[in-house]
Recover the amino acids of this structure.
């Protein structure tokens, strides 16, 4: 049992409130998983300034990035955020070269990923999440079932540029798919079954597919029980398995689209009483584009 939350803002007037709204949603899901938690935030002007690449690193002491002019290092709990006015690939390569043991939790032009071990409320405070801004956020509270309780095992999994995936459930055939991906040269950071789904989707997107077709392929290849939320810099998508055993609810207004594992995570959103609220159908892809 884990908790998923996601918020895609359509109204720019709400962008300054993204972090506060996401914090409330995340903390409402604490009872669904209190061993670790994480968030992905799109468009925060401090963490991911316009024209900058952003890389987030777990459990590592980063003092600076040699050879990258204008790099900024921000410590947020167990996560370190690094941004610089360079191409994303250049910053990723520089971090990997200088800190080869550091685990990169996310990277992109708009994405900041923060995650760690501990209670979701305490982690949100250490991340300074209530002060975050942006147009889109994804969160996850974890009750570990498939792998150890570590920062690397926490969600979201952000293994492609400006991409992330969170998951409630379990993949029954993840070991087989992991072996197939490794045979193609894919490198894994954890033993978590969710990372297999994230790596699979990232491969699909890198091959030119859009999010909807990538998730259709995932539904065809993966066995198990799951609700997934997948996002990138311009889209937000939800899918459940064929039995739809894991809970999910979606709410939509002119100002925002939100999803959560339980309705109580949505009650604090502005205009919730006027929202269209529904439960996503099995294996149907629900997607919204910025």
């Amino acid at each position: 049992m884990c908790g998923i939350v996601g918020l895609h803002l359509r109204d720019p007037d709400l962008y300054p409130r993204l972090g506060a709204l996401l914090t409330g949603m995340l903390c409402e899901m604490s009872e669904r998983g209190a061993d670790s938690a994480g968030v992905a935030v799109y468009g925060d002007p401090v963490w991911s300034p316009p024209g900058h690449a952003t890389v987030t690193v777990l459990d590592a002491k980063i003092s600076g990035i040699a050879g990258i002019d204008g790099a900024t290092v921000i410590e947020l709990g167990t996560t370190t955020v690094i941004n610089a006015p360079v191409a994303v690939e250049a910053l990723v390569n520089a971090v990997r070269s200088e800190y080869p043991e550091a685990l990169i939790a996310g990277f992109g032009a708009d994405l900041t990923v923060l995650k760690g071990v501990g209670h979701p409320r305490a982690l949100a405070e250490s991340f300074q999440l209530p002060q975050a801004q942006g147009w889109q956020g994804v969160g996850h509270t974890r009750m570990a079932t498939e792998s150890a309780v570590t920062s690397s095992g926490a969600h979201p999994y952000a293994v492609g540029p400006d991409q992330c995936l969170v998951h409630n459930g379990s993949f029954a055939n993840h070991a087989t798919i992991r072996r197939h991906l490794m045979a193609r040269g894919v490198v894994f950071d954890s033993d978590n079954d969710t990372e297999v789904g994230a790596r699979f989707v990232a491969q699909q997107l890198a091959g030119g597919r859009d999010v909807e077709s990538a998730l259709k392929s995932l539904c065809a290849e993966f066995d198990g029980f799951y609700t997934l939320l997948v996002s990138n810099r311009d889209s937000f998508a939800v899918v459940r398995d064929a039995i739809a055993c894991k809970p999910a609810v979606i709410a939509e207004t002119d100002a925002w689209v939100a999803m959560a594992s339980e309705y109580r995570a949505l009650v604090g959103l502005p205009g919730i009483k006027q929202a269209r609220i529904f439960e996503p159908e099995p294996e149907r892809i629900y997607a919204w584009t910025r």
In short: The chain has a mean pLDDT of 93. The longest strand covers residues 224-232. The CA atoms of residues 37 and 156 lie 8 Å apart. The two ends are 30 Å apart (CA to CA).
